[in-house]
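Workshop exercise sheet. Pairs work together: one partner reads the sequence aloud, the other fills in the structure field after running the prediction. Swap roles for the next sheet.
Pair: D.N. / O.F.
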Amino acid sequence: MGKRGIRYVITDSWEAGSQNWTDDMIAQFRKRRGYDPIPWMPVLAGEIVGSSQASDRFLWDFRKTIADLIADEHYGTVEAVLKARGMGHYGESHESGRAFVGDGMEVKKLDDVPMGAMWTQTPGVNKVQYHYNADDRESASVAHIYGQNIAAAESMTAAAAPWAWSPETLKPTADQELLNGINRFVIHESAHQPLVDKKPGLTLGPFGQWFNRNETWAEEARPWITYLARCSYLLQQGHFGADLVYFYGEDSNLTAIYEHKSPDVPAGYGFDYINADGLIHELSVTGGRITSRTGMSYRLLGLAPYSRHMSLPVLRAIYKLVDAGAVVAGPKPTDDPSLTDDQAEFHRLSDQLFGDGTGVHHVGKGMVYAGMELGHVLSLLHVPTDFDYSKPESDTNLLFVHRKLENGDLYFVDNRNQRNEQVETTFRVTGKAPELWHPDTGQTEPASFTMAAGRTTVPLNLGPWGTVFVVFREPIHATSRTLPKKVKTQLATLKGPWKVSFPPKLGAPPSITLKALSSWSDNQNTGVKYFLGTGTYTKSVDASAAWFKPGAHLWIDLGDVRNLAEVSVNGKSLGIVWHTPYRVDASDALKPGENELWIKVTNAWVNRLIGDQQPGATKYTFADVKPYRATSPLLLSGLLGPVRIYSVSAQ
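Structure field:
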């Protein structure tokens, strides 16, 4: 273990329930809270001591002590033991929906790599998961404020649709992690597969991903993993670009507060969460901006509604920041939850900062916008949105992440809809030429733009769940650039017949001929109907000489594919396509006249698992769980098309 062996340990989510006692609890309470808890112990049994208000304050102190002990004695001990052995620590807190008397940021700050989690739903379903968004952004905020920079997540965990997932259906979940600030994927999970030719093999019970060598698309996974790696690497560069640091209070943890909704942060602005410890120990003011020792810089400290109950140390920290020049916006703190705090000092500081809870208040070099919405305050501060976009449809939804580089800016832009979007995107950058970096292909290209009023507008054409990096690096004096438009001209639709070949020993015939493209699951031959693995489509394509025009690129678009495809023309592989649009540039492979087209399509395990449940069926699979029945619905499989050839030329 250590430098010559295992270098990191991961602690998974806290699932120990609501712990509330330890052997030296009384001594720890006295040490941390400064008074004797014994006279107050009847409160734990539901009795009132002194007054209901005083009893509530004791309960808050008691829970705070538990939270401190969980952070110091559990997570802190794990960290210390690993450090003594020269090892690092990836650490989650509690994900969501679990009892946890503690603060996620408080425990994750100790990690070498703070971790959140993001579970999948079902293939094709990508609703907003507020609780996982909170968990991930909590981890990213820790990495930004405490200096780890790397924020990881237990990624793409599944509790539904065993062996039914593909890179295309996983992508929206992975992209959401990136949007939350995650920049290192820890894929859940890869079960050990000690059995040879026993597939799909062993599992972690009902939970996936089933990400191991027995996955049908394991040999085709490189482009998908490369996509994740490119995105992760780029989002590890520079510093996170945020205008707002958002204090969520001391009453509960993030994933409980934001289990069913997002925080009240206006769209178009980057933000980090911050907890009490961060406010007290990590923030200062430099040139009118709120800064951290790790290089983070914010224009505004926003207070959540839950911060009305605020401890005196936090209020003192806010006063200190404002006095030094910080700007704060949010509701006035109304009461202090702790018995240890000086209530008179609390109300004096609250009144000085927030007045009667409304209006603008100047304290020292800073200001407090009491009771005002954050978007309005940012407008008053003349801080326009960092990212904005046109809305061709009412539900057009683009999200972004901004990383500030030493000599430029990098934005990750994500289309959160299952359709193409042609939009005008606007970035709070000027004086630098935008470039488009495509993480799925690794290709880069210049972009058209216009600059005005300190902002740059860039037209984007994003496919379903499409993503792109917009990078500003090179200085430019021009205020606009219009690149030639790309004109798409359809040249041919490839009709049947199609020859489809199948590998041996999997129940399918050596080959079949399809008059028209259709799902394998609709085939009358049961070996094809329940086939798993890779089938190879072959066809001759007669390319007209008129297709080959100077400067034009010839593309083959496969239409609908379930689930991945590798395309070859005349023996030359054009790569593996794994998401919509399933298309390849065939310009260097097609030639006038006769061409041989090969399309290798890989589907999922599911249909074969269902086929093995049919009465009297020959078994081709082995698994330690049986999630499918003979009557379970089959999945679409194979090349569904339509397959089209088109040219793209600049005009």
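Discussion prompt: The chain has a mean pLDDT of 97. What would you look at next?
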